[in-house]
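On to my pick:
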Amino acid sequence: MYHSDLFQQYGPAYAVRPPHSLPPTYPATSAHHDAYRYPDLEVPPSQRYDGLFSALDPSQRILGAAPLTPLSLPPGPALGFGQPQPPCDAPRLPGNVKMILENRELWKQFHAIGTEMIITKSGRRMFPQCKVSVSGLEPDGKYVLLADLVPVDNNRYKWQEDHWEPSGRAEPRLPERVYIHPDSPAPGSHWMKQPISFHKIKLTNNTLDQMGHIILHSMHRYQPRFHIVRAQDVYSRRWGGCSSFTFPETLFLTVTAYQNEKITQLKIQTNPFAKGFREDGLKNKR
C-alpha cells in the first residue's frame, strides 16, 4: 500500500508522483476506516495465527517457515523402522496402509559407507532423494503427505582419519519444520498411482532462514520421517487418522563439505548433477 509519508524519502529516486489530494466530499479517514474494522484481526501479529497451530510449541513457530499443520510429532526417532507409528493423538490409519522406499537399493549403497548430506546457507537438495510409494489408502479419501527430519541421538560427530566418531554433545535442537508435499491434499488414488518424490526438500544451516527450508546442525545425524494424514486440507483440525514411516537406509550425517572420499565418488557415479566434483575439492573439508 502506498503511504504518502514515504514519498519524500523514496518517491524522487523512482520518479514517483505523490497521490492526488482527495476531494473535500470524501469521507474523513477515521470515519471511513471505522466502518470497515475487523476486530478479529486487531491482535499482535505474533498471536494472529495461534488458532491454526494450537498443538505446536510457540518456540517452534518461525517467520518464513513453510505452512505448518497442528502436528504433535514425537521428539525422537525411537520408531520401528519400516513400521507405521502414530505421529499424533489422532487415530492411526488402517493397518493395510503401507509405504515402501522406492530407491532403497541406492540408499543402501550410501548407507553402507555412511551417507553424508551437504547443507548450505542458501539450502541444498538431498541426494539420494526420498522417493516412496504408498498403498492401502481409500481412493476417494483426501490425504496430506508430510516429511520431517529428526536427530538420531544426542551426539555431535567428527571425521577421524577414515571413520566418524562422537566428539561431544549435540547442539541444542533447532525449531522443527515440516515439509508438506505440494500435491497435498489429494485423493488416495492420486498418491497410489505412482511413486511420490520429496526431491524439493532443501537442507540449510541458516538458523535465520525465511524460505521454509529444513534447518539442521552440521556434523549431526538425522533420520527422515514420512507422515500420511487423512484430512480435507492442510489446516484441518479434524483428522481421520495418521501414520508415520521411517527407513533405516535413509540415516545421514550433515556436512558442509564431504569428509569421506568414498561418498564423493559414489555421488559422482550416481548423481547426474554431481559431475562438477574434482579431486582437488576433496581437500576442502570442515
User: Anything to note?
Assistant: The mean pLDDT is 74. The longest helix spans residues 104-113. The CA atoms of residues 130 and 198 lie 5 Å apart.
